[in-house]
Design goal:
With 384 residues, the chain is α+β, with helices and mostly antiparallel strands. The protein has 12 helices and 7 strands. α4 packs antiparallel against α5 and α9 packs antiparallel against α10.
């Protein structure tokens, strides 16, 4: 199935590139496009087969994101967010999961951050449930989704400390703000949403600890470092954009004759050097990222990853992001004015890479946290 999904992703590149201006203009994925991507299985890649998914290894999910991003990063971003939001399917009650999967090609979105609260409260006819309120930012893909989840701190009245989990909303349960006006990743529709004292039945609140007690706790997917798993498609998307920029420069340079020159841009030694350096940087960052994913996945077959593997996965992902940003910048500069036009994928990849690099999961503070562990054995590593 892995090869088939990678083949499908590659087949999407031309269509995604062709519709990129439309995607940016809408500031979200066109619904028909999102539904077609869902029908091809891209939102179900990380869900175990027993829960209606494809159960692909993380390296394949990353590579799918990388390939889709060569066509359009916003599309790749929405599908990976949808895929990671479905990890919590393992914590849902069977009846609730069946409701969510009433559409087998269900489009989901979610924000992992525990930016909301869920307080136990009886509902209609005394039904068990929770009052939920909160505000979640960067809710990528929410405009296309049938189910939108948000991280919550759960007060069930059973203990002094709130538990952590995810509230599953229908679009009508929440207020989805039209506030995604950005320079890059415009088509990801990463708007803010709010829940205003919404009552949800108990089955719509999934406790994270439930997974640890479920039959899926021993699955390698749930032994992967969580933050590393959530972040790695971002690095892969960045690499896909960088690779697309290198390819685009090579293609443009074969025919472009710069003003005042008799030779094509592709005949200039300076461009030869710039392309070779960019290609090498992309390949090196890619090799490091996938080697780190493979090492963490191998360890996950037998148990939880140790600090070194968690650190390596996060730093490799952040390095992939930062390297890719540098490459997209250099490739835009290499072709001069050609890159500034809306029709050029170079400018779009640059804007998208700049926006992606601002995400806290791949921003430079990750390196600070990782570096601290070399000097402070007692450092808080929960963020790795």
């Amino acid at each position: 199935m892995s090869d088939e999904m990678l083949k499908r992703a590659a087949e999407w590149i031309p269509a995604l590139r062709e519709r990129s201006i439309e995607i940016d203009s809408l500031r979200q994925l066109p619904q028909d496009l999102a539904e077609a991507l869902a029908a091809d299985g891209f939102y179900r890649t990380l869900v175990p087969a027993e829960l209606g998914g494809l159960g692909l290894p993380p390296a394949v999910v990353a590579e799918i994101s990388e390939v889709l991003a060569m066509g359009n990063a916003s599309a790749a971003w929405c599908t990976f967010i949808g895929a990671t939001s479905q990890i919590m399917f393992a914590a849902l009650e069977p009846a609730q999961l069946a409701e969510v999967l009433d559409n087998p090609d269900v489009i989901t979105a979610g924000v992992f951050a525990h930016s909301g609260t869920a307080t136990a409260a009886l509902g209609p006819n005394g039904a068990d449930g929770y009052r939920v309120q909160g505000r979640w930012a960067w809710a990528s893909g929410s405009h296309n989704s049938e189910w939108i989840s948000g991280g919550v701190q759960i007060d069930s009245g059973d203990g002094p400390q709130p538990a952590l989990g995810r509230a599953f909303f229908r679009p009508d349960d929440i207020e989805l703000h039209d506030d995604w006006y950005t320079s890059g990743l415009r088509g990801s529709g990463s708007s803010t949403f709010e829940a205003h004292d919404v009552w949800l039945p108990a089955s719509r609140i999934a406790y994270e600890r439930t997974i640890l007690k479920s039959p899926y706790a021993a699955e390698p997917l749930y032994r992967m470092p969580l933050f590393g798993l959530l972040a790695l498609p971002i690095g892969a998307i960045a690499l896909g954009m960088a690779r697309a920029c290198v390819d685009e420069v090579i293609d443009v340079a074969k025919s472009k004759v710069p003003q005042g020159s008799r030779r094509t841009l592709g005949q200039r030694p300076s461009l030869h050097s710039a392309v070779a350096v960019a290609d090498t940087e992309v390949r090196a960052a890619r090799n490091l990222l996938y080697a780190s994913i493979d090492a963490a996945w191998e360890r996950a077959q037998h148990g939880l990853s140790d600090l070194e593997l968690r650190r390596d996965l996060r730093t490799a992902t952040t390095h992939a992001m930062q390297t890719s940003l540098r490459v997209t910048q250099s490739m835009n500069a290499a072709v001069g004015g050609t890159a500034v036009f809306e029709a050029s994928p170079l400018q779009r990849h640059l804007r998208d890479a700049q926006t992606a690099s601002a995400h806290f999961m791949v921003a430079m503070p990750v390196m600070e946290l990782a570096g601290r562990t070399y000097f402070d054995p007692e450092a808080d590593t929960s963020g790795l």
